[in-house]
Amino acid sequence: MAMKIRLARGGSKKRPFYRIVAADSRMPRDGRYIEKLGTYNPLLAKDSEERVKMDIERVQYWLGEGAQPTDRVSRMLEAAGVIAKKERANLKKGEPGTKAKERAEEKAAKAAAAAEEAAAPAEESAE
To answer: What is the pTM of this model?
Structure first.
């Protein structure tokens, strides 16, 4: 059985609340799970202790049994110090598009031109 440690969504519309669960990977996201391992409330402040609660011993047990955490859960486990941090390459998603790059280049050129103009009169008045 392919096991996953993942999030199961609860809560009402626009008020998400997640259970961290150990489930068979073939089961639906919010469907049947084997064990509840903790909770995650994204609406709380990032520094709140109530935001992510996990039973670390049970998480380690399931990891030992071969369960694979999803990306979001693995980030929570990394923050808790349960698993080692992975190197993630955010290849092209974080990179601006071509038009945004062109706008940034134009803005930089205008700023450089303005700086040159400001420097030129200052040099003439110094003479």
So the answer is: 0.67
